[in-house]
Amino acid sequence: KTHYRLGHEDSAMDTIVISKSLDHRNVPFYVVDYIMYHEMLHIKHGTTYKDTRRHVHTKEFRADEKKFTRWRTAEEWIKHNRV
Prior knowledge:
Order of helices and strands: EEHEEHH
Strand content: 15-25%
Shape: globular
Strand order of the largest sheet: 1-2
Structural class: alpha+beta
Radius of gyration: 13 Å
Number of strands: 4
């Protein structure tokens, strides 16, 4: 499965970077909002380490992620559309 980086949080620059591929009229606004929300959750939850393994998408992170109103719709759109 190929993964595309649609956004990332740059803590050194205190910035969230969104992929230019999302700057297209066919991309729904809620998808961009969802990516921003996801990256803000990275700031909120940070990174945890267990047995030298890095964890960024913890169960707490995923629970908060599902609080986004159109979480499932955004995930489905991303899954079915190559951006």
